[in-house]
Amino acid sequence: MGMIMMKASQKIVAVVFISLISAMILVPLALFKTGYLVLESENRKAAYYHEVSNEGFKGFETYFSDRLGFRSSLIRVYAVLHHAALESIGNRDVFLAKNGWMFLTAEFNLEIARGGYPLSNAQAEENALAERVIADYYAKRGTAFFATITPSKAAIYSEYIDENIDPQSLSTPADRQLEAYRAAGVQAINVKPRLLAQRDTELSFQQYDAHWTQYGAYLAYCELLSHIMPDSDPITITKWKHEGTSQCDMANQVMRLGYTEMIPIASYQFHAKQVKSGAFYDALQAQVDADNARLKSERKSDERKTIISAVYENPDAVGGTLLVYGDSMWFTARGLPRFFAEHFKRVVVITLRPAISPGVDDLVKPDVVIHSHTERFCKNGEAIRATRLLG
Q: What is the pLDDT of residues 267-280, one digit of tens each?
């Protein structure tokens, strides 16, 4: 009798287990959604099949997973399990933070928010002295020079890393380094206060990528312009459109879910023309190639070669020529080169942690130069690296 009851109990457990598994599979399928769909909790739009159909099974997986019922709950479970998996295999590339936000962990990025970033006073002063060398070089050329540092996403949205951190009162490496620049006599511009003050009007940094959005770049542009051209008003954005982007490096690298994040895109009257060929562009490319070859031969090369990120021309603009030595925050898609092209007859942006190049300067003949790098690289001596072609 007892054996019969045990077998009956086992059957009941098996039936319940199979029923639960079936429900977990069938209910989300039954609630599969079609048509235009915004995944509000993830700040992006769901993929259409025609957008991903050329990616084969991976594209179908993206489309299918975006439209399952109870996706938000399933993704939270996945995130928890995936985070545990990352911990177990020792992957530290990306920190999965509150509400699905993602932050780089490289270069002590999280410590920018937590207060443990390794930038000593001596290093900050050494960086400042190198930046002063650059400023003096441009002073001799009669060129206005400005230094700035792009704040880390961890500094602007630190509460997602730790809810006890208030980003509005947080002092970060960019603040300290820019103060050191000023103490050394360099014109240094801190864009972080404006980003913090207006960050919530639109999304300032991507949730699943390390870069700022066009809105964040616009705030930085407004602050920079107020110092570089104080008599000029920033361009008027008629509308912030919200479009999907698959440039979500952290999500696509770590989560493998084919994210398409919704980000703000600036709508405004654009007058400048982007240049990608012609005598000037070709000569500029030749000089950049020569600089890369020289640094490589002198064993001073980086993993990434310096590139021409953007050239814009606007004959009707008031300003002369702007030359920017920057990084990926200055890529055209981020918006900064286009914003400044409304004020300068020519805008040239050289990126990927470049060295200040006398050859480029002789060719471009800038009236204004901006030197910029991202906050998490403060400890690496970016100003020192930038002087490699000056001595």
A: 999 999 999 999 99
